[in-house]
Amino acid sequence: MLAHNSSVKMGKFIFINPQIRKRNLLSLLVSWIKFFFLEGIEWKKITPIRSWPFGMKRLLEILKVDALGIMSELPKENLVVIKGKNDNYFCDRESAEILKYNGYTVIEVDADHDWNENIAKTVASYINSVESIN
Fold first, then answer.
1. What pLDDT digit, counting tens, does each position of 82-108 carry?
2. pLDDT at position 101
3. Residue 89 needs a FRET pair 20 to 30 A away by CA distance; which of 2, 36, 59, 95 works?
4. Interior angle at CA 98, CA 122 and CA 63, nearest 5
5. In Å, how far are 68, 92, 105 from 102, measured between CA atoms?
6. Consecutive H or E run containing 117
7. What is 33-56 written as a DSSP string?
């Protein structure tokens, strides 16, 4: 897929809290429930019940994505993973160890699973550092 497109392979890639370990629907739902109760979630961020069928469809699509497989098609020097230190439910410590073992650069920032200012600053800093090299 990606390996055949040289212009894509030449680009720089930032993966943020990717799901590395394959999981089934039940284990992902258990992780989500833990996330909900332990990290907390703002009530205004909860998806309305009428949108749950669409959300479930998207969740099933996410479970099919082989992020590590996609990453393996890209040059490791053109790829960085930014992970929230406190993300214990999606891109957890075990996932970070798998990434490091496979030779990927993992930057851990002070964040949970959700996007926050620390992740945004790290992304901007990485982009600026790449642009200054080129």
1. 999 988 877 889 999 999 999 999 999
2. 96
3. 2
4. 85
5. 9, 16, 9
6. helix 117-133
7. HHHHHHT---GGGSPPGGGHHHHH
Average pLDDT over residues 48-54: 81
State the virtual CA torsion across 105, 11, 65, 4 in degrees, nearest 10.
Answer: -120
Q: How many CB atoms lie within 10 A of CB 18?
A: 18
Where do the DSSP E strands lie in 1-134?
13-16, 79-84, 105-109
Encoded amino acid at 123, one letter: V
Ordered by start, the domain boundaries in the chain are 2-133
Beta-bridge partner residues of 120? none
- Interatomic CA distance for residues 41 and 31, integer angstroms: 14
Cβ partners under 8 Å of residue 31, min gap 6? 23, 89, 90
Identity of the residue numbered 9: K
Cα 61 to chain centroid, rounded: 15
Read off the pTM.
0.77
Q: Of 88, 116, 94, which is closest to residue 21 (Cα–Cα)?
A: 94
With tokens 């040059």, the residue in question is: 75
